[in-house]
Design a protein that fits this description.
single chain; mainly alpha; disordered C terminus
């Protein structure tokens, strides 16, 4: 009879120890899962923000390109204006930047 009680006590202790180890492993796994879910949520938010910024940048680029294209077709004299400004700057450089009014 004492051997049977000792065997039951040993078996009970082993089961309780296994239960304790299993609960510790469960708690550790829950913490890891929680951390992984938090990191995943943060990554999803960053990706969503970057995708939104990318879409806004693309939209601004399209608008800028449309502005440039419409600006060059609306004003055919614009290249001539640039040439006039360049020739005026060249003349000022040749005279030393002084105008005729000051002389």
């Amino acid at each position: 009879m004492p051997n049977l009680l000792h065997l039951l006590q040993t078996e009970y202790d082993a089961l309780i120890l296994e239960l304790f180890d299993t609960r510790q492993a469960l708690e550790q796994t829950r913490k890891e899962l929680s951390q992984s879910l938090y990191q995943n949520d943060a990554a999803v938010r960053v990706i969503a923000r970057l995708a939104m910024e990318r879409d806004e940048a693309r939209q601004q680029l399209v608008l800028q390109q449309q502005t440039v294209v419409s600006g060059t077709t609306d004003d055919p004299n614009q290249p001539a204006t640039k040439k006039q400004k360049t020739s005026t700057t060249t003349e000022e450089s040749a005279t030393g930047g002084e105008s005729d009014d000051l002389m």
